[in-house]
Amino acid sequence: MSADRVPVVIIGAGFAGIALAMQLQRSGWDSFVIIERGDSVGGTWRDNHYPGVACDVPSHLYALRDHPNPDWSSMFAPGAEIHRYLRAVVDEEGLGERLRLQTTMSAARWCTDHWQLTLNSADGRVSELRADNLVLACGRLTEPRLPEVPGLDSFAGPWFHTARWDHRIDLTDARVGLVGTGASAVQLLPELVRAGSRVLLYQRSAAWIMPRQGRDYSPTERRRFAAGNGVLERTRERLLVEGEERFASRSGDPVAAGAAAEVAREHLRSQVADAELRAALTPDHAFGCKRVLLSDEFYPAVASDRVELVSSALAGVDRSSLIAADGSRRDCDVLVLATGFWTTRQPYAELVVGEQERSLADHWASGMTAFASTVVSGFPNLFVLNGPNASLGHNSSVLMAEEQAGYVSRTLHRFPGVRRVRPSAEDAWTREIAIAAVDTPWLRGGCRNWYVDERSGRLTLLWPGTIDDFHRRLQAADGSEFDQLPRGRFSPTASMVP
């Protein structure tokens, strides 16, 4: 095989890309490369370095199965620590020689029996690479979503998205406009208050916030985790079970959701004394409809004299003035956008062209779809990690990425050559998800969330089941999802959620 043709090319070196690289290497696959646009591995945890950024999944569950980390500093690891962890995994696995950093895929086109890739290096060089198999491990939280607000570019001071944090800006005693009250804002606001900022907090809708109850691990605990006597393994298993048990409350079980919602309400009551402010911070949608957040510090920060809550979306910007949807105007010095990411419309989809000259964006024009949340009809030998219905609202998505990596590795070994996904298999998988989601709060909870594609109203981000469900479904896949392979025991219409 020529030097410019590689059996497997992985785009992205975050958790998913690293998980797959490990699977391939350990299963004897000796020829693959990882293309990464950043200057290091880490994905989300490289790009997000705003004050307070941390994992909201317990650290010991937010780690690769074959790389448990006994030395996490706390129950919810800070972002920089997760970034260091991923770099250490790459070093320990010897994956560095397979990495091409500061290289961006600008085009991918299917050509009879391979993918033709166009790559752009940071130094301006353009190169071509042929891949027998292409894996998109680009992540779902990579491209910041800026609000369509008139006058945003006219803002007189510095402004940036949380995922593009500018550490050069001194926020001490600055008037900061913080737009959004989602996961990033909940972590950031207490840090702004600690830094001495005066904050205008723009809230489109209140979130359900549960007690975080995090703490640092003591040196003694970390020594026990490292001792190799099963403590770390049992801790991880306990956290996994606890996470799976949360599925009931997030997916709409009335008893579980009611109990969880009452915990959140009591958390709010205990931390915010002012009745009017408490009312403004009370969600008006079903528990689980949006991402449930964890924080012990957000409510006290909002209730402090350093923060003014604006219960309205940002509707316009006029130089240093922020104009709310209710018509009110307020001045600020720095504008920070905690407005999320392009999740349901993945930017890479425009770059990937499959059979019949159809782009992945066209195929996903009414929402992302894939068989096994991983392979797509019309796009031979393409795998998507962290794509359609591969996220979770109740547990660690790292576990989902590892399940997908296992499916990719098995497929490559068992079914070499050109594999075309049967459209009927992808359609059946998509219908099944729609049926499983129909009565959930994600669709009927009275909120607008990033799990649902607004073009079709379909649930396209979340997996509507547990990790165990996903594991069993992917393990059962026997190749009958592909055109040229004989049908076997796997039925794509089997019950998704038992």
UniProtKB/TrEMBL annotation:
Coiled coil: none
Residues annotated as signal peptide: none
Pfam families: Pyr_redox_3 (PF13738)
InterPro entries linked to this entry: FAD-bind_Monooxygenase_sf, FAD/NAD-bd_sf
PANTHER family, alphabetized: FAD_NAD(P)-BINDING DOMAIN-CONTAINING PROTEIN-RELATED, L-ORNITHINE N(5)-MONOOXYGENASE-RELATED
Protein name: Cation diffusion facilitator CzcD-associated flavoprotein CzcO
